[in-house]
Every structure is written in C-alpha cells, then in structure tokens.
Specification:
Layout lengths: L1 E5 L3 E6 L6 E8 L6 E7 L2 E6 L5 E3 L5 E4 L2 E3 L3 H9 L5 E6 L11 H10 L1 E13 L3 E5 L2 E6 L4 E9 L5 E8 L2 H8 L5 E3 H9 L12 E3 L15 H14 L6 E8 L3 H13 L1 H4 E6 L19 E4 L1
C-alpha cells in the first residue's frame, strides 16, 4: 500500500460559516512523506502549519488551528475527507481565516479531489496504530480505543430532541464507504443556539443551505434529511477530521460516545503524550504486510482507563 496525493492543483471559493466572509481554497499535490500541510495566506505573508493537536486554539462549534497570529477555522470536514479518501500528502492553501463551509458536509471536498484524480506515490504508506486498549471518560463523554488492522468507529449520540434521540452507527473506513456513508452528512445545530450565536456576532455565514437546523419539534430545512441517522454520521465525519490532527492516519477500533471537538482533541493529545504506551508507527508494504517497530497486539482487554 503506497502513499497518495492528488494529481494536480484544484481551487474553489466559498463562504466561511462563522465570519460569513469569502474564502479562497486551493489544494495542491505534495511530495512523498510531506503529510498534510496548511499554508495560511494573507497578502504576501504565508504561514506553514503542519497537523498538530497543539495548534488547536478553539473548539466552539468547529476546530480552529492557530500559529503566529494566524488562524484557520472549521478544518474538520476537509480533514475528514482527506482521512476518508486515504490521502497522505497534500498542501492546503487558504486565503481567509476559515475553510469554506460549502453545504455543511464533505461532499464538495470529495468532489474537488476526485475531479482531479488521486495518484499513488512510490513511498509505502505509514500509519500510527493503537497498540494497547485504553479508555478516557468525562461524564457521558467517552472514547475507547483498541488495536485494529484498519480504522473502525462505533459512534453513539444522545440528544433530547424528538428527531435525534439516541443514534448509533458503525463505520469501517475505506474511500468507497466514506463517499457513500459519511461524506454527505451535514453539520447540524439548534435554532435557539444559532440565534444566540448570530446575536453574538458568530455563525454569520450559517444558513439552511449549509447546515441542518432544528427547532423545538423538528427540522426546519424543507429538503429533509439525507439519511435518517444523518446526525451521528456527521459526528463520525468530525471525528475522522479531528483525529487526523495527530499528524498521520490513525489505525484502531474506536468506541465513541457523546464526544465533540474539544474531547476529540483531548484524546489525540493524550495519545501523543503517551506514544510509547499506546502508539506505534506502522509501514504498510504494497503487499499489505505489517512491519511495525513494535508488534501490536490486536486482541487484548482494556488496560487503561483515564477519568477526567
């Protein structure tokens, strides 16, 4: 299994969800072993920003990255698409302070990257693999991780709203499954919260064109849901994007309950801070053989529980 990037540059423009301003986005091929790199542009200035959970400066409604007094918000949908399509190397050039929200899902980003095509590179793919079971908890929020040859996510949400309630979904990552099961799921919010945010000068670019909005009883959007469980599927999209901030594709089986951007980020930081205990770098050959530095144990019982 070899690393992948896109075949050529592709650009788009759109409105940012929170500032409501026009954003220009360009995706560019990157050499082997580059990883995913943001270029934050303002005039002639440009700041390079690698994926790193410690660059996360805000998790209110979205994941925001900051460096050298520059920031880019709402990165999770594009990063989720990159993880879902199993792309390893990419330059992301942004003119603006957040990524365009598009339709509130990852569909537009998938279309952009697939429209120019993906290409295999010569270097073998590398991933970070969970080596020991662990679980972190904070109230009803929980993330449990186990070793697994791939990326598998069991996600549960529970909202006291008649249209949502308790929803669960199990997803095993592959580009084909991502496109059909996850990419189209849109971000969602509640009308009372949207009104409060807009009064506070936030969510200026939010509309029924780029988010599912719920009032006290049901869905305001007249076009309805794309999936009956679209809400939990979107949470999986967010999780895929947030865990990619560890800096490399992550392999493991994850059981996630009622998490959000802040808790996802805490989990990724915890893994990096305990890398000798829970992570190992794995190189995947074209024959798909595992050649880890430390051989993972893929069947084991939970060893660590962290209560926050």
């Amino acid at each position: 299994m070899r690393q992948k990037t896109i075949k050529k540059d592709i650009s788009c423009s759109g409105i940012g969800l929170h500032e409501g301003k026009k954003v220009n986005l360009t995706l560019k091929p990157a050499p082997e072993n580059t990883g995913i790199v943001f270029w934050l542009k303002k005039g002639r200035e440009r700041v390079s920003l690698d994926l790193n959970p410690y660059y996360v400066s805000d998790t209110l409604l979205a994941t925001t990255l900051s460096k050298d007094n520059k920031q880019v918000a709402t990165v999770e949908h594009l990063l989720g698409a990159i993880q879902g399509l199993e792309i390893d190397n990419l330059y992301i050039e942004v003119e603006g302070e957040e990524l365009p929200i598009m339709d509130g899902s990852a569909t537009s980003f998938v279309f952009l990257m697939r429209s120019v095509g993906l290409k295999k590179q010569n270097a073998p793919k590398k991933v970070l693999g969970i080596t020991k079971p662990l679980k972190i908890e904070n109230g009803n929020k929980k993330i449990e991780a186990r070793p697994y040859k791939g990326l598998k996510i069991h996600y549960e949400i529970d909202f006291s709203h008649p249209l949502i309630g308790r929803q669960t979904y199990t997803y095993i990552n592959s580009p084909e499954r991502f496109v059909t099961e996850i990419a189209k799921a849109r971000t969602f919010g509640f009308l009372k919260d949207v009104e409060m945010l807009q009064q506070a000068g936030k969510a200026k670019g939010g509309s029924l064109e780029n988010a599912l909005v719920l009032d006290e009883y049901g869905l305001i959007n007249t076009d309805g849901l794309r999936f009956k469980d679209e809400f939990v599927r979107h949470k999986i999209l967010d999780f895929l994007g947030d865990i990619l901030l560890i800096g490399m594709p992550l392999w493991g089986e994850f059981k996630v309950s009622c998490s959000g951007h802040a808790f996802n980020n805490h989990f990724v930081r915890f893994l990096l801070e305990n890398k000798d205990h829970y992570l190992t770098e794995i190189t995947l050959s074209e024959e798909k053989h595992l050649t880890p530095k430390k051989k993972p144990v893929f069947e084991a019982e939970p060893e660590v529980v962290l209560n926050m």
